## 1
Amino acid sequence: MTILTSLLGTKAFSLILFMWQAGTAPAASPEGTATFSITSMIKSMGGVAIGVVIVLLIMSVYSIAIMVERYLTYTAAKKQSREFAPRVAQALKNDRIEEAINISDKHRKSHLAMVVSSGLQEFRAHEQSSDISGDEIEASKRALQRAIAIKTAEFKRGLSGLATIGSTAPFVGLFGTVFGIINAFRAMGNAGQAGIGAVASGISEALFTTALGLLVAVPAVWLFNYFTGKVDGFIVEMDNSASELVDYFIKNRTRQLKP
């Protein structure tokens, strides 16, 4: 895999150099000698290469949509959690559970608010019970675990798509590369010569699809790793909040049962 990535990176650099040279190339000579530009290169692509480019563009648009949506989601969760934490901590410190639930409901984008709200609502349902069996504490723990699982799945939504695009886009581009090389050798055979003019169209097609595949894959991989780290951090925060909330429930119940 490392060798393949290195080869693809070398081809991508060659394409950049080729496109720069093509963009600065002079116009066609009076004798009709062919010159290359980005527009003419795209027009000369075969059906397979065009199909590969379309697939890669669709993958690119999809990955960009996921990146933007996930970034906005994580930013809103972080911002609201920072506002929520001190307010709910103060409410719980004064044993105002109903107020803490209301505060949680006002921060619906916060992962901490969702977890705390689930635990508090379950605890409130058993608050009037004098049973010391601990069933209400266990019920609250299960509610917290369910909330964490649901929020974790919500945070991870779309990341599998980024991972798939990041891992498959280079191979989609490589598929177009193979057909570009085939077209280059076919043109060479039809022309009966081995000059660069006979194979330039196929080679440019091959390098273009390779570079496009890398261009789609690299940001997807980078953002997937970045977002995965964000989600891991959110999970740690939710676990810590759940643990602190369970401690609060235990202390609250112990205090109520004291004569």
## 2
Amino acid sequence: MRQDRIGFLFITPAVFAVVVFYLVPVLMTAVIAFTDMSTATGIRGGDYVLTESSLRKLDDASLPADTVAQLAEGGFVVDADGLAGIEAQFGAALTTRIATALLDEKFDNRREIERALNDLRAPELRITRDRKAAAALFQRSVLNTRHDTPESLRAALSVADIPLADHDQIVQAAYTGWSWTTRNFELLVSLPSTLRYALNTLMYVSVTLVVFNIGLGLFLAISTFYLPERTSATFRAIWFMPRILPPVLYVLMWKWMMLDSGFIASVLAPLGVARINWMMETEVHAWVAVILINGVVGASFGMIIFASAIKAIPQTMLMAAEVDGASRWQQVRFIILPQMRWPILFVTAYQTLSLLASFEYILLSTGGGPGSATEVWAMAAFRTALNNYGGNLQYGMGATFALVLVLIGTALSLIYLRFFNFQALLSKPRIER
């Protein structure tokens, strides 16, 4: 019982980390993906504001034309607030005159109230411009007025004599906050760019993973294993440097090599090769640059993991094989590679998730260009939710992109565990049974 409590105590930090840094973010992403949350709506509940844009939507949604016109004009009411404005602008005499003749009167449009003011024959309102200014003080439009609650907006609509049957539709159109919706997923399926992002991500992840992260990393680990210890350690340290360099500095080095004024162009220019931007000249150039930049970093990670795993292989096995006349290739094929399933599984799963979620090297090097040729799924999520050109950040749509990425990453991890026979890797060796 005591051992169980100690074991639980030790595993608690790991459980806490999984819940806080994985489950909670994933859950929040899933929740936001089913909303239309954006910069316009805010991340909290919104207010109720009827704007010209709202009116156009209501007109398109078949709200009665009379109601739309009434909302646009807003109506005019001779009340205490308007009279206070008249007194401040035109004096007490005109205020008394208007109050006596028109107090609490309602007018549907500006023309009617201006006609009523003209009938007063007041000297202060002899000029048309003054009558218009006086009429404006009594305008009670619900447009561009912010209301904290739907009840407040409904009260304003009632004052403006808007038919009660139209209130629900108007309140819904005036809401500026976010609401629950599945439209993000529908939009994701229908957008032409979705397929482009998916294909870009597939090529980026598969080529970088297979050729560099696993292939080149394994090749470097095996090659350096047969070198003298000091030489191999020095080589690995040098190759590992791109991973510990700041991404900005690392990408700047690649740009220095590949721009039209960079190292490659300068070397080839005397040979008659025109100076071009080897990073952005064409889509092929951009993809080569992106995969090389990420591949060199990924290969260094695989090299360290695989080299450590090879060092853990009992030396007696390799010595016995060498005594039996096995060549280096035979040692690699029949001794080293069969015992690399676990590290290959780890690197494959880890680097797949890393590549699916990472885009910083692409953003710093090609920016997803030329055009959107190298824009991957994670970058699309970032730009949609946090850094788009339009200014209105679509948090809900960005979360939808991210949620799909989480589901794909989780599915691929389960496939890897099945493919590498994870249960067999965890089983005890036969000699210990």
